[in-house]
Design a protein that fits this description.
Rossmann fold, 7 strands, seven-stranded parallel sheet, alpha/beta, 8 helices, globular
Length: about 280
């Protein structure tokens, strides 16, 4: 029997081919879980340009690939800035599969990068609202649903090594991820009696669409070629390479499974040894 047989998972921010979310969805489906992918779906009403949005067409392609490989998957549009849309996404998962066992708060934004003295309030608010408020809405309504079901559950927040150190030029992002770790710990304490486990994963650099954008941005802003920037990054990682989406997805599968039944309130580094605390 696969480790997630019969489990139902909702994954926010999972509608892009090169994103972390799609890798998590594929991994959970491979282990027998049913997955609901969610993303913005369209540019209408979004604050972001299309290269940072999981469109319905792209999300549908990912779902089709999962189905062709024998998995169970469906999708729903959801803007995590709006509480009602998060509630609706959870309701959709329950309607589609009868329950919700797993929520992965993966939706995030990390490309509005400026030094503090150049950062405007609008960009600050956007990053904090997506990365933190969106996760708060997800935790709140997933926990309500899981408590009603009475069978416990698992919530995973995708944080970052930026939750554990400062990064020049990334004040909003760093602040949002530090706060997400605090939210994780608090939620783990509040929902432990319902056997709802809440953990966060702290990746370092991972090769995704967002990761590619960050490579270009940081190498340019620091006067490096992108090749030299990546070389320096690999050299400071003890295992000698940047992260892959499957590295994060595999940790998600473990945290979603009964093998991690005694783990909650933790912020787990998946960083090739770059972070060790």
């Amino acid at each position: 029997m696969s480790s997630l047989e019969g489990k139902v998972a909702l994954i926010t921010g999972s509608g892009r081919h090169k994103g972390l979310g799609q890798a998590m969805a594929r991994a959970i489906a491979k282990e027998g879980g049913s997955v609901v992918l969610s993303d913005l779906g369209s540019e209408q009403g979004a604050k972001f340009t299309k290269e940072h949005i999981g469109l319905n067409s792209e999300m549908s392609e990912i779902i089709d690939e999962i189905l062709k490989n024998g998995g169970n998957a469906s999708g729903v549009a959801c803007n995590v800035l709006h509480e009602e849309e998060v509630k609706n996404a959870i309701s959709y998962a329950v309607k589609e599969y009868g329950k919700l066992d797993i929520l992965i708060n993966n939706a995030g934004i990390g490309y509005l990068m400026e030094k503090i003295d150049k950062l405007n309030q609008s960009d600050w608010d956007t990053v904090l609202n997506v990365n933190l408020r969106g996760a708060f809405f997800g935790i709140k309504h997933a926990a309500i649903q899981m408590a009603l079901q009475g069978q416990g559950g698992t919530i995973i927040n995708i944080a970052s090594q930026a939750a554990k150190r400062g990064f020049p030029g990334a004040a909003a992002y760093v602040s949002s991820k530090h706060a997400l770790v605090g939210l994780t710990r608090t939620a783990a304490l509040e929902f432990a009696k319902e056997n709802i486990r809440v953990n966060s994963i702290c990746p370092n650099h991972v090769t995704t669409g967002l990761g590619d954008w960050q490579n270009k941005h940081f190498s340019s802003s620091r006067g490096f070629s992108e090749k030299d920037y990546l070389k320096a990054m690999r050299e400071r990682i003890p295992l000698g390479r940047v992260g892959k989406t499957d590295d994060i997805a595999n940790m998600c599968v473990f945290l979603c499974s009964d093998k991690s039944a005694y783990i909650t309130g933790q912020n787990l580094d998946v960083s090739g040894g770059e972070e060790m605390h």
